[in-house]
Amino acid sequence: CEILSSLPLQMSLYFNVYFFPFWWLVTVAILYLKYPVLSDYYKFILVTIMILVSLTELIRLYLGYVGNLLEKVPELAGFWLLTLLPQLPVILFLLFNEGLKIHSLERAVHIVFAAFLSFQVVAAFFTLKRMVNTLATRFRLTEFHRLEEQRPGPGIYSLAPGSSS
User: Would you name any one GO CC term (predicted)?
Assistant: First the structure.
């Protein structure tokens, strides 16, 4: 029985679990400091982003752990999609939008978080690909063995006793 989990992905998830609270505290502290000088629409956008990222990250990390460690394709696919679609674009928005008056510490933690997300997108993709291929092969082999067991053996089609040919 081959292990399909990815050690690099699991290590990245492990370190991400410890980095995320640090990222969150730094981002909230800097948001608190620069909040008065931001325009109204950036205030709304940043508060919405913090809520969205916080909720999504908790779900994303849980799905990543379960999907990778227990080799569950749906959970790992959910992790990959949550990483690729809301998280990575939002962090890149926070990193590259100069209208947000980005502080240097904020830029540093966003770069580290974006690096985690980028690595996890690539690692989860290859892990998912390997899991799906292996599980599809196992399924085909079990179906083949099931059909082989149902196939009649030689001599089944012989004439019934008492009949002449």
Answer: ciliary membrane
pLDDT attached to residue 26: 97
pLDDT tens digits, residue range 94-141?
999 988 889 999 999 999 999 999 999 999 999 999 999 998 888 888
Task: Please tell me the distance from the alpha carbon of residue 138 to that of residue 63, in angstroms, as a whole number.
Answer: 23
Nearest to 13 by CA among 111, 81, 83, 110: 83
Which DSSP string corresponds to 59-88?
HHHHHHHHHHHTT-HHHHHHHHHHIIIIIH
Helix residue ranges, H only, 70-152: 73-82, 88-96, 104-150
Q: What token pair was written down for 84?
A: 């690729």
Residue 59: band (very low, low, confident or very high) from pLDDT cuts 50, 70, 90? very high
Which 3 state secondary structure label does DSSP give 153? coil
CA–CA gap between residue 78 and residue 98 (Å, rounded): 31
Query: Would you kindly state where each structural domain of the chain is located, as residue ranges?
Result: 7-148
CB 56 within 8 A of CB 64: no
Measured distance CA(105)–CA(10) in Å, rounded = 27
